[in-house]
Amino acid sequence: MAEAILEVEGLSKYFPIREGLLRTRYLHAVEDVSFVLEKGKTIGVIGETGSGKTTLGKTVIRLYKPSKGRIIFRGTDITSLPEKRLRPLRKYMQIVYQDPYSSLNPRMRIRDIIARPLLIHRLVSSREELDNRIRELLEEVELPINVMYRYPHELSGGQRQRVAIARALATEPELIVLDEPTSALDVSVQAQILNLLKSIQRTHKTSYIFISHDISVVSYMSDEVMVMYSGVVVEKGPTDTVINNPKHPYTRMLISSVPKPDPREKLPEVMEVAEPRLPIDPPPGCRYRDRCPYALHICSKKDPPPISIGGRRTVRCWLYSSEAGTGRE
Amino acid sequence: MQVFTRLLGERAWLSPQTRLLLRKLKRNRSFRVGAPLVAVFVLLGLLAPLIAPYNPVKGELSHALEPPSTRHWFGTDQLGRDIFSRIVYGARISLIVAVAGILIAIIAGVIYGSISGFIGGWVDEALMRIIDILLAFPDILLAILVASIVGPGLMNVIIAIGVYNFPQFARIMRGAVLAVKESDYVEAARAIGESRVSILLRYILPNSLYPVVVHGTLRSGASILTAAALSFLGLGVQPPTPEWGAMINEAMKYLDIAPQMWVFPSLFLIITVLGFNLMGDGLNDVLNPRIKE
Amino acid sequence: MPLLEVVNLSVNYYTDEGVVYAVDKVSLSIGRGEVVALVGESGSGKSTLAHAVMRLLPEYAEIASGRIMFDGVDLLSLTDEEMNKIRGRDISMIFQEPNIALNPVFTIGEFMKDVYLAHHPGAKPEEALKKAAELLRAVRIPSPEKTLKRYPHELSGGMKQRVLIATALLNEPSLLIADEPTSALDVSVQAQILTLLRRLQRERRMSILFITHNMAVAAQIADRIAVMYAGKVLEIAPTEDIFYKPLHPYTRMLIKAIPRLGDKRELTPLPGTIPDLRRRPQGCIFYDRCPSAKPVCKRSEPPATRLGNALVYCWLYSGKKSHRRE
Question: Does A218 contact chain C (CB < 8 Å)?
Fold first, then answer.
C-alpha cells in the first residue's frame, strides 16, 4: 500500500475582486476540492480556461493561502503555516511552469538558477559539491554541461523547460506540481519532456500533480485524474475509467471535443455555443447547469456533493444521486 | 566589490541580451550622433587640467575682453581669463554636477521605489502620494526652492539636482518593480524558498533597472541645464568657479562688446544637452521598441 | 487550374543576427473548394508562407524568389493598390489571437461595416449591417443584432473568433487563410470552431489554407496536408495517406510522437532539435535527425517524387529505387 504524501480536504481558494469603494465580490477559483496523492504517483488535473486548475496547483504548494480546507503534506498540516516555517518544507515541494520564457530569471545564468535552491536549503557544503550536483542535475535532464554558463535567452523552449525541471529536482522533492509543462512546446519536444518526466518519476518515486488542458497528455501521464469546471472537481477517478467511461456531462462533452489524430474519426458537429463563465459569487447549484443538456430542477438549487460511484470514482452530478428523484441515465 | 557581485548572483554586465542591445545601439542614428557628443563632453571634463592652456580662475587684466585669437581661442572675459580654459573646466564642473546629482537621485529613487513597489499595499500608496506631491512642482521651481533653502555653492547645486530628480526615479523604479513582481520567475523564486530580501536583490532589481538607466541618461542632460540655470540665476555655483551658466550670467553686462563671453558657453550647453538627449532617445528606442503593426 | 499555386517560393528574414531562410523553395497548390492544412512545428515557416501569400510580411522580410499564382494572376506582380483589392475580398485571413484584429474602441457592427464598405464602395451602411447580421447568424452567434452593438471586450474568446470568421466571409472570398485559428482556444471551443469552419467551407465551396501545429486538428478539417519542416515542404498528400501511409521519416516520427487519448504506450520522441535557419545545408534539411539517412541525403537536396496522390521530398523514394514504399 503506497503511502499518501499529500492529503487535501475541502480546499477552497477565493480571490477578492474590488468593485467600487464598497462592494467586494469573490472569485471562487477553487471550491471544495479533496484528493489524496500517493508516493510515486501522478494525479492529473484537466480543465479549460477558468477551471481553477492552476490555482489549485499553486494553492496546494502554498504559493497562495487557502481560504478554506486543509492541506496535509508529509504528515504536516501546512494549511496555515507561516512563511518562515514553510520555507524549509519548500525543498520537498516544487513547481514547473508552463511558459519556459518567463519562469527563469533572465539575468541569472543557468548555473545560478539551479544553484539557488541548493544554496538556500544548505544542501551542499562546498563549491565543489555544488558544481558536482549541478552537473548531475543537468545530466539527468539531458542537457549538455556547457549550458551552465549560458543565460535563459540563449536556450530553446525545450532546453529552458529542462532547466526548470532541473531546478525543481535540485532539492529532491517528493512532490512536483507541473503546470502545463509542455503546452508551449512543439510536439516533438513535448514527447521528449514527457518521457523525461516519466523516467524521473520511476527513478526518484516523485509524486506529480500534472495540470493541463490537453486531455491526451494528461491521460498519458496520470494514474488518476480530476476534471475541473469553474473551480469544482466534477469528476475524479483512475485515468482509464474516467477517459473511457466518463460520467459527468461536462467530462463527456470535453472528451468528445478532443480531435483525434485520425481523419476517419471526425468530430461530430457541435451545436453548443457556450463557454465557461467565471465563478464570481456563484449562486448555489451545479456550475455546469446552464450548459448541461440533462439539467434537472435540483441542479439550480443545490451544489451536488461528490458521489461515489464505485471503482474509486466520484462524480459531482445530481444524475448519479438517489436524492435527485428523476432516475435519468 | 567581489562580495557585492556574488551577493547579486554574479550577474555579469555583458549578458547576451546586453551584447545584443549594444549592437543595436551602434546602429541607432540618435545614439550615433548623441553618444560622441557626450563622449567629447566627458573627455573635456575629465582631462580639463591637461587640455586647458591657461588658469581658468586667474586672468591677466591687460588682456581683458579680447576676441578669439590664436593666443586665446575663445577670447577672454572681463577679467582677462581665457574663455576656452573656462569652458573646459566648466565641462568638468557640469560633469561633476550632473553625475553626482543624478547618482544621488538614482540611488535614493531606486531604494525608495523598490521598497514601495515591493511591499505594496497601503505603504506603497502612502509613499507614492508623497512622490506625487513632489512631482506636482514644476521642475525648475523645485530646484530653485531647494537651492534657496540650502544656499548657493557647488555642493548645494548637487543636492538640489538630486532632490528634484529623485521623485521621477522613485516612480519609474516602482513601476518597473510592480511589473517584474508579477512574473513567473519571481513566483518560482518563492517556490524554491527564496527570502523576500533575496528576491528583491537577485530577481527584481536586476530586471527593473533598464528604465532607470534610460531615464538617467536623459535627465543628465536636463540637470546640466538646470545647474546652468541655477548658476545663471546666482543660486548655484558662485564666481570665480567657471560654470557655463555662471559665465553667461557674467556675460550679461558685456553683451554687445564681448559676445564671446556668452556665445561659447551657450553653444557648449546646447550641444552637450542635445548630445545627452539624443543618446537617451537612442537608448529608449533600443530598450523600449515600439510594436509595429 | 488550381485556385492558388505557390511556385518555388523563398522568403528571407533580415535580422540582427543574420539572414534567416524562413521559407526555402516551397511549392504548393490548393484547388477550388479544397482545404489544405499546412502542418509544422515552430520554425517550419508555415506562418511565414501564409503571410507571404497575403503579402503581409513585415518590413524586414523579403520574398527572395518564386511566384504566387492566384486564379492565374501572380500576386507578386501586383501593385499595392491591386493587392489591397484582393486582400479582404478574394482572399481573407483569420489569425490565432482574436484580440489583435479587433479594435477595442469600435463596436462589432462598426468593425464589420468598415470591412464591408472597404470592398463595396458606394454601398449603403444598412446593407453592410444587414450582411453582417446574416453572417453572424451563419457562425451561430446568438442574437446577432444585439451583438453588432457590442464591444469586443464584452465577448468571450470563442465569440470573438466567430466574429472574425464572419468578418472574413463578408466579402465572399474564394480563399480563406486561417493561421492557427483555434490554438488559443479551449478544446471545447476549438471543436465548435472547427466543425463550424468545416460546415461553412462545404456550404460555400470555399478553399482554405489552414495552418496548424496540431496534427489532430489538421485531420479534422483538411483534404490534403502539407508537412513543413525548417522552411521546406517535406510531404504533401491526402489526409488519409498522411496518417495511414506516411512516407517521409519526419511525418512518421511526428505521428508517433502525438499522445493519443487512451493510449498509454510510450511516445517515441524525435531526437535533437530544429536546425539553425540561418544556414542552408547542401543536402536534405532533415538529415541530422533522420533515422534513415543515407550518404546521398547529406550531399544533395532530394527532389520531389510523386507516389500515387502524394508528393514527397526524400531520397528514400527517389532515384532508381523510386518504387520503394514502406
Answer: no
